[in-house]
Amino acid sequence: MEVLHESASSTQAILDLLLELDWYDWDPELYYHRLLEVALSLIPEATQGTVSIRNPERWYFVASIGHELEQLLNLKLESPWCNVQGSTVKELVSFLDCLSSSTPKPTQQFANGILGNVERTLIGTYSIDEGEQIILAVDIPKGHHVTFSDSSKKTFEAFLKLAGKYQSLTQQKIALQNINESLIYSYEEISALQEKIRQLLSISQQFGDNTVRLPVFFNQLLLVLLRLVDQADYGSIAFIKGKNLTFISSFGHHIQAILSKKMKKQWFLLEETKHIIELPNIHALWKAKMPEQIYKIIQKSFQPVKSTIMFTIPVDDKITILFMLDIAEGKPTNFTPLARRMCLSFAELARGFVRIRIHTEIMKRAYYNFSSKLAKVVEQYDPETGHHNTRVSILSGYLARKMNLPRKKVEEIISFAGLHDVGKIFIDPLLLKKTGKLSPEEYELIKKHTVYSSQLLEGPFFEVARNIAMYHHERWDGKGYPFGLKENQIPIEAQITALADVYDALRSTRIYKEAYDRETALAIIFKGDERNLAGQFNPQLLNILQNNIDEIERLVYRPELL
């Protein structure tokens, strides 16, 4: 049980760090101190450490535990003196081993006085854009004759990556602030752009809405650009990854047949790399560069055009976004120098928005992946789950859609319904595996899994998951636990998961019973049995279950899920 509690404690500490911080307004110095504090609590060999940042201009410390930060701030290090390149993790004698031989002797001596009194040091560097590195170090104090375990090194690597990702987001935030300041300056200096800039700032506020799906988001992005460039009649956006190009949005063209299909980048772009270029009759270029069969598809998909402005936005080292704006064939208008300037300004603004949006999506997927893995951990603690969590998730999603809940809420219910019993990892596994009848005291212990779940599912992202785990044993008639809530005092996600959980439990084989057929399961839910299930569920949900039982059985009780 000590291993279990240690694991739960570690998970709790990491979740605190991930979920309690405001990633955009948090003071970086406080954040890195907090990260270092949590890292040291999970690496038992180390009791002190530092965080420093190195870029082409300077190398400076931002956080320290166990060393005097004021002295570290007075340690004037130059960027070329660091001899650790790239993203690496090394175990060294001390932080001083990071210093190259070109470091002046007085600086080495001063650094040794601050950082030299250690037995061993674990140092990691994480490379960020534009030549910046974050350097994390944790130390074993002098006289402690121990070495870093493999487990501690893996934990250290995780915190190094977390520090690097945070620094990357901080850079992006600063870049976006600089872009906004640049736009404000343009607004003040160029009166002719005043109205367009006002429209841009107004519409761009929608970009921060994380509930908007990416295809819709890029459609909005394209419409904003078309509003800014009066001459443009059509437009399209594509993602470039490696040698492939994939269209994701268009206006005026008919590219549904090629949306999300991979094309060769070389078919669409000129060999020379230019940030923005204007091309007459782009169809002639495509015809010359593409295989005949591909061009026939493209010719049907894209309208004939007189002129095209094409420009790219590098988002990161893997993704570039291609924008194309077109003037329709036969139109007398031409792109103006002002239009090109607007495109360049838009490109910088879009880069910042798209970077944050993509990183938000990556973080969202990471949370969902974490939830999925956490659900599998729960299965190891309760031998009866099997595919139960998967079926509960599918059935919960079905019921949520039938309740006409918002798409984002449905997605969260599907992702988190499998965590309804996550609190059981804090219950003694021997009690969970008991085959005989539980005593009243044992049953009370089992019931506590609902409130235990809040120890893991903290923070705004896990609100739906927390509601499901804490309240899925509440009853519509108020006779449930842990709080005796009734009717719509119970969050709708918990109402839905409760019905899915009970129906699947009745339809499943358990230690104490065989699986019931669907007619018996429905009879117990609607009429009750010795456990008095009648009155437990929202009547609207019961109607959905009864009226759609044939489809539910086909969807949920497929052979691969049994």
Automatic annotation (TrEMBL):
Protein name (database record): Metal dependent phosphohydrolase
Alphabetical list of Pfam families matching this protein: HD_5
InterPro entries attached to this UniProt entry: Cyclic_di-GMP/3'3'-cGAMP_PDE, HD/PDEase_dom, HD_GYP_dom
Classification of source organism: Bacteria, Pseudomonadati, Spirochaetota, Spirochaetia, Spirochaetales
Domain HD-GYP: 363-557
The organism of origin for this protein: Gracilinema caldarium (strain ATCC 51460 / DSM 7334 / H1)
SMART domains: HDc (SM00471)
